[in-house]
Design goal:
single chain; mainly alpha; 2 helices
Length: 91
C-alpha cells in the first residue's frame, strides 16, 4: 500500500479546505477590487494579488492530480497483491 486510507482522506480534506479558502478569498477580492486602470499603481497591486491567487490555484490543482495518481497507484498495488503478483519498485 502506497498510502493508507486515513492519510489519504486527511490530505484530501486539507486540499478541499485550501481550495474552498482560495475561492472565498478570490470572491472577496473581486468585491473589493475597484475599477482597473492599468496606469494606476493601486490597480497593478490588485492585478498582482489576483495573479498570485491564480498561481496558488494552479498549485492546488497540481496537488489534486498527484493525489489522484497516488490513489490509482494504490488501487493497482492492491489489485496486484490480490492477484499474487509482486511488483518491482520503480527507480
Amino acid at each position: 500500500m502506497i498510502i493508507d486510507r486515513e492519510t489519504f482522506t486527511d490530505i484530501a480534506k486539507h486540499l478541499e479546505s485550501a481550495s474552498e479558502g482560495l475561492l472565498r478569498a478570490a470572491t472577496g477580492v473581486a468585491t473589493l477590487c475597484p475599477e482597473m486602470d492599468p496606469g494606476e499603481p493601486a490597480s497593478l497591486r490588485w492585478l498582482a494579488l489576483i495573479e498570485s491567487m491564480v498561481a496558488v490555484n494552479g498549485e492546488i490543482t497540481a496537488l489534486e492530480t498527484v493525489l489522484r495518481a497516488v490513489l490509482d497507484a494504490n488501487r493497482e498495488e492492491v489489485a496486484a497483491a490480490r492477484a499474487g503478483v509482486v511488483r518491482e519498485p520503480s527507480s
